[in-house]
Design brief:
Blueprint lengths: L3 E3 L1 H30 L8 H25 L1 E3 L14 E7 L5 E7 L10 E3 L3 H6 L7 E6 L2 E12 L1
Parallel strand pairs: 1-2, 4-5
Antiparallel strand pairs: 3-4, 3-7, 6-7
GO molecular function, one term: translation elongation factor activity
Protein name: Transcription elongation factor GreA
InterPro entries: GreA/GreB_C_sf, TF_GreA/GreB_CS, Tscrpt_elong_fac_GreA, Tscrpt_elong_fac_GreA/B, Tscrpt_elong_fac_GreA/B_C, Tscrpt_elong_fac_GreA/B_fam, Tscrpt_elong_fac_GreA/B_N, Tscrpt_elong_fac_GreA/B_N_sf
Length: 157
C-alpha cells in the first residue's frame, strides 16, 4: 500500500472528522432514516431518499478516511532542513511578471487547501519548487499556462 504523507496536524484533523462522522453524524442519519420510514410509502418519501443519500455519502467518507489514516505517514517537519523546498516548508515567492508575492505551505494531498495557501506535493507549483533554494527562479507549467516565480524565503512549518 502506498503511504500518504501528512503532517501531525493534518492527521489529527482527519481523525477528528472520522470520529465526528462515526459518533455523531452516523447515529443522526440512522435516526432520520428511521423517522422517515414511519411516514409511510417510501417510493414517494423525499425525506427518506434524502437521508439515504446522506447516509451513502457519510459511509463513503468514513471508508475513505479509514483508508487514508491507516496509510498515513506522519512527517516531522521540525527535523527537515530549511535551505531547500521540501514537504512541510513554507515558501514565499514572487511572481516574476507582476512582482506579486504569495506564500505557500507544501503539504500532503489530503491537507491541501489553496484558500489557506496549502498546496499538495503533487500540485504543479509544488513539484516545480521542491528541491529549489532561496533566490532561484522556478518555471511552473499549470493548466492556465506558464508562470515564473522567484523563491524569496523558505521556512519550516
Amino acid at each position: 500500500m502506498e503511504k500518504v504523507p501528512m503532517t501531525a496536524q493534518g492527521l489529527e484533523k482527519l481523525q477528528a472528522e472520522l470520529k465526528q462522522l462515526k459518533s455523531v453524524e452516523r447515529p443522526e442519519i440512522i435516526k432520520a432514516i428511521s423517522e422517515a420510514r414511519e411516514h409511510g410509502d417510501l417510493s414517494e418519501n423525499a425525506e427518506y431518499h434524502s437521508a439515504r443519500e446522506r447516509q451513502s455519502f457519510i459511509e463513503g467518507r468514513i471508508l475513505e478516511l479509514e483508508d487514508v489514516t491507516s496509510r498515513a505517514e506522519v512527517i516531522d517537519t521540525s527535523k527537515l532542513g530549511g535551505d531547500t523546498v521540501t514537504f512541510g516548508t513554507v515558501i514565499e515567492v514572487a511572481d516574476e511578471d507582476t512582482d506579486e508575492e504569495q506564500t505557500f505551505t507544501i503539504v500532503g494531498p489530503y491537507e491541501a487547501d489553496i484558500s489557506k495557501g496549502y498546496i499538495s506535493t503533487s500540485s504543479p507549483i509544488a513539484r516545480a519548487m521542491i528541491g529549489k533554494k532561496v533566490g532561484e527562479s522556478v518555471e511552473v507549467t499549470t493548466p492556465r499556462g506558464s508562470k515564473s516565480y522567484e523563491i524569496l524565503s523558505i521556512a519550516i512549518m
